[in-house]
Amino acid sequence: MRGSVCAVLAMAAVGSSVAVMGALRDFPVFAGQGFRFALAAVLLLGVLRLRSASPPRGAVSSRQWVRIGVLAALGMVGFNVAVVAAERDTDPALVGVIIGCAPVVIALVTPLVNRTAPNRRIVLAGLVVAVGAAVAQGLGSVGSVVGLFFSGCALAGEVAFALVAAPVLSALGALRVSAYACAGAAVLCVPGIAVTGGFRLPDTGQLLALLWLGVVVTACAYVLWFSAVGAIGPERAGLFTSLVPISAVAATALLGTGSPTWGHLIGAVVVLVGLLVGLTAAEPHRAAVGEAHQG
């Protein structure tokens, strides 16, 4: 139950980003992402510092550092840059639909990693929530091949965000993984800033948007998300990513900048049905998720 609540709160926080993204439409991508991840890293490392009186959970191994680096590169920086690049050439709704296939991919790939058979009920639930998310946001129109390519890259990043972190969570905890990954992501943004030459100070509106992204959508949401992955596993946690378009609609409705349609409501119902199907499935084998099996 705790893991499911964490997943819902995490996706609600991510969906709330729709309220501030408009302010960053013309802001340099790598600079914005770098600020966001750096702020989150400072906050999370500060929390770790305050908790330093408690016994440490052990040193970080080289294999764990590699996983954290891949998580930062693919699941964080890579995902966000790919989404921005995809939406330049493809309808944002279609980009969302492609990324919305993540629950299905996670449900199929996780058993391959763990060398077990796929849980048919969770795969079915992944298909249902993906359909629900597509209904909620619309299919959009087909864009260019480049746009579809970057949409696929974003999907890969979304899958990596769940799978790569899972094996280290039991050893390091959600807070440490989030803090170290955010710090790594901030560093990875520096070459992008240097290559693109895209750096400038934000104005007041952009600064407020970046603060929201850094504190709520990154620091808080990432700790909640990794707590969920550690508690219920990547297969079940992945189902909750379908809540993002629904929480985005809810955020715009609360702000008075949008109103739900029948498509949104029907999509929400379908997603909820899919979640019920997946969360009541038998517990999948999760041996590979424990760090004790990582050597």
From TrEMBL:
Lineage, top ranks: Bacteria, Bacillati, Actinomycetota, Actinomycetes, Pseudonocardiales
Q: Where does the UniProt annotation locate this protein? A: Membrane
Q: Domain EamA, which positions? A: 2-135, 165-277
Which PANTHER family does this entry report, sorted A to Z?
EAMA DOMAIN-CONTAINING PROTEIN, INNER MEMBRANE TRANSPORTER
Top-level taxon = Bacteria
Q: Key word Protease present in the record?
A: no
User: Topology in the membrane?
Assistant: Multi-pass membrane protein
Q: Does the keyword Transmembrane apply?
A: yes
Q: Which UniProt keywords apply?
A: Membrane, Transmembrane, Transmembrane helix
**Transmembrane spans:** 29-48, 68-86, 92-110, 122-142, 148-172, 179-201, 207-225, 237-256, 262-282
Task: Identify the main location.
Answer: membrane
Its family remark reads:
Belongs to the EamA transporter family.
Q: Which Pfam families match?
A: EamA (PF00892)
The protein's name? Integral membrane protein
InterPro entries on file: AA-Vitamin_Transporters, EamA_dom, EmrE-like
Which terms in the GO cellular component ontology are assigned?
Answer: membrane
